[in-house]
Fold SDR family oxidoreductase.
Amino acid sequence: MKQGKIDKVSICGCGWLGLPLARHLAQRGIETWGSKQSSEQAGKLAEHGIHGVTLSLPDTLAQPETLTVELKQFLDTDLLVINVPPGRYEGAADDLVAKVKLLSATAKQVGCRRIVFISTTAVYGACQGVVDEFTVPRPDTRSAQAHFELERYLLAEWGSEAVILRLSGLIGPNRHPVRFLSGRKGIEHGKDKVNLIHQTDCIAAIEQLIEHWPSQQVLHLAAPDHPSREVYYRQMADIAGLPLPEFVESVERNSKIIDASKTCNWLSLTLRHADLLNNNPE
């Protein structure tokens, strides 16, 4: 990696966000590696120009000295993007911490140069009002606490060679929370503001990180448009032709508003999906 240039990127977790990110980077001519938990799915990554490897944490890395050639090549990279969502089972948050710490230690041992950890704005928890990149997190769920623990661990281990990217609620192809709220009745806190970010803008932000490694290590993303939950989800349901959700009458609270203007400035990033109300939910 000459003068900080990133020529090879490995993405741990080629799911809803990781796969389109890997496809985009491969199409740009960057040597791109991606992991899937099954060998069958890993093999299919080649169809997109991605070097696929089978990686199931923690089993695959239990004995670093016995790593396969493919896994060593995967981890010996200019940039490792850690995009490992927590499971939904009991103890999943603790497992996430153990898995990512093992992955980090093994990657450093093999020769990885930099990492990006995909985290969540849920680490801000009970914070109220406008939240920027310097707001002190207040995680109030076990999952959010696990992410914040990993953020601190990775920054301590990697120093300036680590970037934490906290993402707000994710929207994009085949993923929109309106589908879970459609037709529901008696939904509370309808006047709270939404904090959402589109898949396309997440990929663009990571691309900018690759082009110009930032001096700021903690970044976050959310569209600058923050309509109320009631206004937003009813309009998105209407656009999608779904039954409208019904919210109970509520007072306006000082809800959390994620301000990502600093991150966009640091990355020279212009969000394509900044206006949430005038964008198709998909």
